[in-house]
Structure formats: C-alpha cells, structure tokens
Amino acid sequence: MFFEKIRQLTLLLERQELEAPNGIVSVQLYSELFAAYLYQNDLSNARYLWKRIPPSVKTGHSELEQMYKVFQCQWNNDTAGFYKAINYDWSKHVSELMFELKEKMQQETVNLIGRAYSSIFENVLAEMTNQTPDMIDELCKNLNWEIVEGPRPRLILPKHPPVDKPLVVTAEDQLQKLTDFVSFLEN
C-alpha cells in the first residue's frame, strides 16, 4: 500500500518537474523526488535526478547533499554507511519517507540474513541492521532465532524461512489444460 502511494507520488513529482518553467523546480520537489526514488530502490533514476539538479541548488542545500550520501551508500551496498547517513534531521516533507526507507532496509537486511547465514555474531548483526543489543534480543525472539550465550559477542543462529514448494504439474495435466483451452477457443 505504501509502495503504491510512493509510486503515485513519484509520477506526480516527475510530471511537475517536466512541466516546470525552464525545467527548474523547488528544492522541496527535488528532495521529495530523490527520497521517493531512494525508497523504491530506483537508483538509476536517483542518479540521473542528481545530475539534473542545478549545482547551485545542490551546494546550497545540506539535506540534498545528505540524501546523496544515502544514495551513494545504497549504490555501493554499504549498509553501515547507509545507517550513518540516514540518521539525519530530515525536513518534515521527507522525514516520513526517509524513516520508512530505513525501516524497509532493516527488514530486507534481516530477511537476507535469515536466508543467507547459518550463524552470525551479534555485533555484526547489530551493525548490519543498526540495532542495539536489546533490539537484537527482541528480533531474535520474534523470529525464533537461537542466541548462543557466552562471551561477547554472542553467536546468533538464524532459522531459514520456510521455502514455498513449487507446484508440481504433470505433463498430462498441462496437456489437458491446453486441450480444454483450445476447445474453448474453437467453440
């Protein structure tokens, strides 16, 4: 639902940029569009938007420069740098979007860790997800991940999420469906 809302916002902002006199819009529109691209992980469009923004607008606006740092971290898959860059006092017109981006990134990282790791040290998980030890304990409890107690850093054993088994369809079933479809078209 939120993603669709952002997609609609992006289309509206892009139209406003195209229809702007002289092709130059307000800093607010640039920052909202840049944030929307970042949220959608549309890094190519974010990159081209950055190139379109006039240099005088870029250098005079620290929020846009900070968004560019977030973009660079996403582009380079630098999760630790991403969390440092996104922890910024965003203006009210992009703060919700940047907060949602951070939450989305944390959730995607946790899902990836669950699928890719059989064990991970607590400090590495904390750095990758920007969470405190208390938050890590809650996360592990909610996901039913095992924490091996011992000297710090503790070892965490993620449980792989269940994989949906592909539906097995026999060749005879496929042939029957195709026959039924052709019969339907002929009649």
Describe the structure.
Keywords: Cytoplasm, Nucleus, Signalosome. Its main location: cytoplasm. With 187 residues, this protein is mainly alpha-helical. The protein folds into two domains: 1-92; 108-163, Arc Repressor Mutant, subunit A. 68% of the residues lie in helices and 4% in strands. The protein contains ten helices and three strands, in the order H-H-H-H-H-H-H-E-H-H-E-E-H. It has a three-stranded antiparallel sheet with strand order 1-3-2. Strand 2 (146-148) and strand 3 form a beta hairpin.
- For the largest sheet, list the strands in their spatial order: 1-3-2
SSE class: mainly alpha
Strand residue percentage: under 5%
- N- to C-terminal separation? 41 Å
Helix content: 55-70%
Subcellular location: Cytoplasm; Nucleus
InterPro entries: COP9_CSN8, CSN8_PSD8_EIF3K
GO biological process, one term: COP9 signalosome assembly
GO cellular component, one term: cytoplasm
What would the keywords be for this entry?
COP9_CSN8; Arc Repressor Mutant, subunit A; 3-stranded antiparallel β-sheet; 187 residues; 3 strands; 2 domains; mainly alpha
Fold topology:
Elements: H1 2-19, H2 27-39, H3 43-52, H4 55-59, H5 62-75, H6 79-86, H7 92-116, E1 120-121, H8 122-129, H9 133-143, E2 146-148, E3 155-157, H10 171-186
Antiparallel strand pairs: 1-3, 2-3
Helix pairs in contact: 1-2, 2-3, 2-5, 2-7, 3-5, 5-6
